[in-house]
Amino acid sequence: MKNPQLSRRSLLGASAGASALTLAACGTSGPGGSGGSGEGGGGGGATYWDLSGEPGESITQGAVDAFNELDQGTVDLTFFQNDAYKQKIRTAIGAGQAPTIVYGWGGGGLRTYAEAQQVEDLTSFFEENAEVKDRFVKSVWGAATVEDKIYAIPNESTQPIILFNNRTVLEDIGAEPPTTWEDLMSTIEKANSAGIAPISLAGQSRWTSMMWLEYLLDRIGGPEVFERIAAGEEDAWLDDAVVEMGTKVEELIAAKAFVDGFESMAADSNSDQALLWTDQAALMLQGGWTYGSMKTSGNGFVQDGRLGYDPFPTIEGGNGDLANLVGNPAGYLSISSDASDEEKEVAKAYFTDGVMTDAVAEAIIDTGGIPVVTGQDEAMAASEDADYLQWVYSGTQEAPAFTQSWDQALQPTVAEALLVNIEQLFLGSITPEQFAETMNTETAG
User: What keywords were assigned to this record (predicted)?
Assistant: First the structure.
């Protein structure tokens, strides 16, 4: 098996001008772009849509550039912002115009595509290429599997949702990282009194608000409540813990916990992160993927030790363990069933020799991520981000439960209804009871 022998420094730098490449690519690939002919020595091309944003964008571009030098065909890569991508890929797949390589999050979305035979069954591919499958951490395969068949290859890093804090701001307002709900409400009060935003939230994106619900429901009812919801059990949304979760959101809104104007802030612009690194906010609940962007864009925020990270607080009387996690076990790549045989072969070659190579894993570690492949302990220990990496790595290994992000675990139509109702809940347009009843109806329908 050939692997691109590209150093981690080269891989991160291989896309110097990645923004320019991205702008150019947007003009060459769109719905229907799955038919690219490519110019590689293998004589075939595959199209690939992925998410924009650093540092992942440069790492992915570098991996594709390295693969394209291997004479196994050419991968034509296009980046899209997170929210725009979700709508675009659903439309493209439904119209039979998907890219060859489909970026996704596994779970319910992948199940929908698999049941509609819109993505390839890769079970035999991994049986024939056991060494490829064995590179990956075992726990990440669950979200790639539907009815005991594998429909995607894991990619990127394990990304739990983390309660980040600005250590300097907390010290200035006389607060500690909150470990209980009472601690959190006290921190909110102290921050407001000091004229600091207690919590930075890019609520326009909706999935950012969802992170609060995911942890609240876990801490109140335990992970079993959402397990029943994800399994489609009748009236699972009507669990008392769901209503109490919504009541906690009402408490946060009433306490002015979130930055003014949170409902019009978008995560794609990193505006929520910027409030944290510019000392304008005390806390931010976000995915582990933001560590890398805060490191590269935060003007020394990470490097000078001002960034803190802690578990989500417990709630008195709740069933959830402080060590329970929610978030993304990995990113996932599938192959469109509508691609040509030639395109599928190039995609499989990329899965073998381009996805999560040693160089990619090292580049992920360099940017503060936990790659989803084995054998990275020494590289993490040698990293300048060793403390953070070890904290995340230990947390993911020791968590009693790691609940997949709801909009990934649920079927796409239910997930979209969820995001709409989350927005209404955080705007105060519906009550916790209405939220539970509406979601129960959506799931039943």
Answer: Signal
- Tell me if 81 sits within 8 A of 51, measured CB to CB: yes
Based on the domain organization, do 179 and 244 belong to the same domain?
A: yes
Tokens 């395109």 found at: 343
The string of pLDDT tens digits covering residues 290-344 is 998 999 899 999 999 999 999 999 999 999 999 999 999 899 999 999 999 999 9
For the beta carbon of residue 7, count every other beta carbon within 10 angstroms.
13
Helices (H), 68-166: 82-94, 107-115, 123-128, 130-133
Of 78, 162, 90, the C-alpha closest to 407 is 90
Q: Helices marked H in 255-340 — which ranges? A: 271-277, 290-297
Tens-digit pLDDT profile for residues 44-69: 699 999 999 888 999 999 999 999 99
Please state the pTM of the whole predicted model: 0.78
CATH of residue 37's domain is 3.40.190.10
User: Structural domain tally of the chain?
Assistant: 2
Q: Which amino acid is at 181?
A: W
Residue 384 lies in a domain: no
CA distances from 188 to 163, 167, 207, 225, 313 (A): 14, 15, 22, 28, 13
Q: Is the pLDDT of residue 444 over 90?
A: no
